[in-house]
Amino acid sequence: MIKLHTSLGIIGIELDSARAPATAANFLQYAQDGFYDGTLFHRVIPNFMIQGGGLEPGMSQKPTRAPIRNEADNGLKNEVGTIAMARTSEPHSASSQFFINLQDNGFLDFRSPTAQGWGYCVFGRVVEGMDVVQAIARVQTTGRRGHQDVPVEDVVITKAEVVD
Amino acid sequence: MPALFISDLHLDPARPAVTASFLDFLERRARRAAALYILGDLFEAWIGDDDDQALGKTVAAALRTLTDAGVAVSFLHGNRDFLLGQRFAAASGIRLLPESVVIELAGQPVLLLHGDTLCIDDIAYQTFRAKVRNPAWQGQILALPLTQRRALASQLRETSQQATRQKAADITDVNPDEVDRVMRAHGVQRLIHGHTHRPAIHQWLLDDQPATRVVLSDWDDDRANALCCDDAGWRLEPLLPTGT
Known about the structure:
A: mainly beta; 12 strands; B: alpha/beta; five-stranded mixed sheet; 7 helices; 11 strands; about 35% helix
């Protein structure tokens, strides 16, 4: 399990290394490297998702490792409480940023191996601290530095702790 | 079932990622809506429904899939795609709206516009608009061969981009008095438009009654927003967990 210590409490994540091996390993590596420590949940949209793991306070982007292959064709669905990788419109562009689904977002699921149909890769789920996720979803947001839906008060991942 | 509103995608063969986002939106998100309203500038340029470029055909086919699935799609012209016509509408199953229209949402009348008519401080643009929205001018243009129309369109775009760069920011935004006037004239307290690329939900008092003006977002490689109107209210909904 990976414990995301945030300014609003601890979120426990269980990775699905069986069904999303490359994506789970990628997340684990960033966590072990301390990459996520000090990053923000920088995009918070109630009834949709909370997104983080790439920007630092002040909305500066941390340099990431190379993007990974999109494993969204693994059958896992963007259901409430699952964690998935954010990406650009290029299907295989995810690196460090992830999001936690606040509701069943079936429109983000894999449909076909095309630019339009790849979907967003689910690689685990929240097993503890869903109340913390909900608390983050309720914070007040604003526009900042070209980003929308940014929490007015920083929601910081103080530490990503890998626990056995 | 919600109604969705989008505008200012400026679809262009040079920006395939935006087209991909839009096709994805039609395939997934829009399927869960009762109605989709596209309030202009869906395309960066439109030189006539007889144009043979692939983008128009791809978009028409994707819209057709959506309208065949029972989602009502309406389109209102923008300042880029004002030549989009009945032939495209028939192919895609969409309904063409007049340049301003009042619809009913949750029992309230709501005015829909592209938004360029609200920017009355930009006199040069309004003069240009009067010319290109004239049916006689449009008829002349559509009678030209495609190659000539293509050249003319790119020339117009260049002129427009140069002019916009030189204009003060405030004249390319809406004129607030004109907003009030137009809303009064249509008897509405609610207005949805695009065009200015300044997405926001504005609220104020119009004749002592609460008024709302939603400005829709433009789209680019990592931004795709729709206004969603349902029982829970109105919100500008980002469509993608975009990031890397």
